[in-house]
């Protein structure tokens, strides 16, 4: 089990790797598409990277509900 | 029971020639933006397509297959009657009786070959190549002509921006022949039939629908192992790959695969999608032909190819360019 802070750091690492987002820009209230300029296909790659890193499953229909970094963190916390 | 004799074919097969047919009509993103709610920026950044070719009525599947097949035969230096197997891979033939193989062979002057159509969606060409190599190794054929041909515009709703911006038309062909020194590695193929609805023409509809994100996810996660397996079975590694020519479905899938494979800087990556769109079973031979014509790929280069699509199906192999 990772702590909330560890999860946020892990998500920031994935965002940097997949979409070139600067880790300093990543905080829970940020929207992936509106604030971090992550498009729907990068979201798919982020989802698979999150699955690998945290051992959670993110089906396509759940992915649509994950809009902010905070949504991702709480999804991981609930499902890990 | 009488025991039956079996035969042994050639030790291997190699590529002898390639050819392509690109429909006359170029369709730019700006042209599509005039009739549907899309734009050049979106298409280039999400899919990587700048323009595609759409076939006109006289550019039928058979005409395009004959044109590409004729060029591949000429490049191979073989006389048509040296060919004894013709496989036409396609997923867009709307009237499947009769299949195209026998007519295409006849039009090219190939004398009474084994001839048939093969539908494995966008993996069709690589499936056909695998079948042809195995036929040559089993002694059922000596020289084979394999053609991938599509008129996807016939099965696409050209007012639906979700698919119309992606799918296109064309034909690509390859002649292969028996050889003591193998120039085509074993095929690694498979299917995920649980996802048969991901790319399909639903009952009662004339056109394809596609679950884009599900296919994107599948392509960027599940197919890396196929690519590694194709290299392993051919006894090569990423550092040996001069040319990487996967199915041209989405430039971002191509780049993602190339990154996961850890290909060297020097590997030439096929990006024919930029000019040709997604031509399903025709995309791999079209992409290889484009690289040969531009001089980016050279004779003797080792290429890694992969087809994947409706089914869902996938097939890949390593081959040496003629
Ligand atoms: C088809 C594909 C490019 C669609 O991309 P996507 O990001 O999944 O597209 P979506 O339908 O989720 O749409 C994302 C956004 O772009 C918009 N959009 C969709 N299609 C568009 C188009 N043609 N032009 C402009 N905008 C478009 C949507 O309205 C949506 O906007 P929003 O986020 O503001 O609501 C992508 O899923 C893909 O390439 N998948 C793989 C397909 C494949 O490899 N097939 C193999 C066949 S052999």
Protein topology:
The complex is a heterodimer of chains A (80) and B (322).
Chain A: H1 4-19, H2 40-54, H3 60-63, H4 69-79
Helix pairs in contact in A: 1-2, 1-4
Chain B: E1 12-21, E2 25-28, H1 29-35, H2 40-46, E3 51-54, H3 61-76, E4 85-89, H4 101-107, E5 114-118, H5 124-138, E6 143-151, H6 161-164, E7 169-179, E8 188-191, E9 199-200, E10 209-210, H7 212-221, H8 224-234, E11 243-246, H9 251-261, E12 268-269, H10 273-276, H11 283-294, E13 302-309, E14 313-320
Parallel strand pairs in B: 4-5, 4-6, 11-12, 11-13
Antiparallel strand pairs in B: 1-7, 2-3, 6-7, 8-14, 9-10, 13-14
The complex binds coenzyme A (COA).
Outline the biggest β-sheet of chain B: 5 strands, mixed
Counted by DSSP, the helix tally of chain B is 11
SSE pattern of chain A, N- to C-terminal: HHHH
Principal-axis shape of chain A equals globular
Taking pLDDT < 50 over at least 5 consecutive residues as the criterion, the unreliable ranges of chain A are none
Q: How far from one another are the termini of chain B? A: 46 Å
Tell me the number of strands of chain B: 14
Percent helix of chain B, as a range, is: 25-40%
CATH class of the largest domain in chain B: Alpha Beta
| Share of residues in helices of chain A | 55-70%
CATH architecture type of the largest domain in chain B: 3-Layer(aba) Sandwich
Give the SSE order of chain B as H and E letters: EEHHEHEHEHEHEEEEHHEHEHHEE
Number of beta strands of chain A: 0
Give the strand content of chain B. Answer: 15-25%
Radius of gyration of chain A: 11 Å
How far apart, in Å, are the first and last alpha carbons of chain A?
Answer: 7 Å
Structure description:
The complex is a heterodimer of chains A (80) and B (322). Chain A is an all-alpha fold and 80 residues long. Chain A has a single domain, classed as Non-ribosomal Peptide Synthetase Peptidyl Carrier Protein, Chain A, CATH 1.10.1200. Chain A is built from four helices and no strands. In chain A, helix 1 crosses helix 2 and helix 1 crosses helix 4. Chain A is globular, with a radius of gyration of 11 Å. The relative contact order of chain A is 0.20. By secondary structure, chain B is an alpha/beta fold. Chain B folds into two domains: 168 residues, Peroxisomal Thiolase, Chain A, domain 1 (3-Layer(aba) Sandwich), CATH 3.40.47.10; 133 residues, Thiolase/Chalcone synthase (Peroxisomal Thiolase, Chain A, domain 1), CATH 3.40.47.10. Chain B has eleven helices and 14 strands. In chain B, the strands form four sheets. Chain B has a five-stranded mixed sheet, with helices on both faces. In chain B, a hairpin with an 8-residue loop joins strand 9 and strand 10. In chain B, helix 3 packs across helix 4. Chain B starts with 11 loop residues before the first strand and ends with a strand. The site of coenzyme A has 22 residues of chain B, from helix 2, helix 6 and helix 7. Coenzyme A binds next to helix 2, helix 6 and helix 7 of chain B.
């Amino acid at each position: 089990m990772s702590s909330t802070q560890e999860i946020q750091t892990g998500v920031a690492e994935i965002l940097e790797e997949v979409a070139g987002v600067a880790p300093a820009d990543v905080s829970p209230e940020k929207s992936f598409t509106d604030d971090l300029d992550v498009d729907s296909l990068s979201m798919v790659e982020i989802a698979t990277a999150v699955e690998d890193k945290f051992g959670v499953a993110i089906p396509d229909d759940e992915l649509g509900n994950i809009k902010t970094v905070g949504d991702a963190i709480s999804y991981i916390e609930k499902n890990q | 029971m009488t025991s039956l004799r079996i035969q042994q074919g050639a030790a291997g097969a190699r590529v002898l020639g390639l050819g392509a047919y690109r429909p006359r009509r170029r369709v730019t993103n700006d042209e599509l933006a005039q009739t549907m709610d899309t734009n050049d920026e979106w298409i280039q950044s999400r899919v990587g397509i700048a323009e595609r070719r759409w076939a006109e009525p006289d550019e039928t599947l058979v005409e395009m297959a004959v044109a590409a097949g004729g060029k591949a035969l000429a490049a191979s230096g073989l006389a048509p009657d040296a060919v004894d197997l013709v496989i036409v891979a396609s997923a867009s033939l709307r009237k499947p009786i009769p299949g195209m193989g026998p007519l295409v062979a006849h039009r090219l002057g190939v004398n009474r070959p084994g001839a048939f159509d093969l539908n494995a969606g966008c993996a069709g060409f690589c499936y056909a190549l695998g079948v042809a190599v195995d036929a040559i190794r089993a002694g059922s054929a000596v020289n084979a002509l394999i053609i991938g041909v599509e008129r996807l515009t016939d099965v696409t709703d050209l007012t639906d921006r979700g698919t119309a911006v992606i799918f296109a038309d064309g034909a690509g062909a390859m002649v292969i022949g028996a050889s003591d020194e193998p120039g085509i590695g074993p095929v690694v193929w498979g299917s995920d039939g649980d996802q048969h609805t991901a790319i399909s023409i639903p009952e009662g509809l004339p056109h394809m629908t596609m679950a884009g994100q599900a296919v994107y996810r599948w392509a960027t996660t599940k197919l890396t192992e196929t690519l590694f397996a194709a290299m392993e079975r051919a006894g090569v590694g990423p550092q040996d790959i001069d040319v990487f020519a996967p199915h041209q479905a989405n430039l971002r899938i191509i780049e993602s695969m190339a990154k996961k494979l850890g290909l060297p800087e020097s590997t030439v990556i096929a990006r024919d999608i930029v000019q040709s769109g997604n031509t399903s079973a025709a995309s791999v031979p079209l992409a290889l032909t484009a690289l040969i014509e531009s001089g980016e790929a050279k004779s003797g280069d080792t290429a890694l190819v992969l087809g994947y699509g409706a089914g869902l199906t996938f097939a890949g192999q390593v081959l040496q360019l003629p």
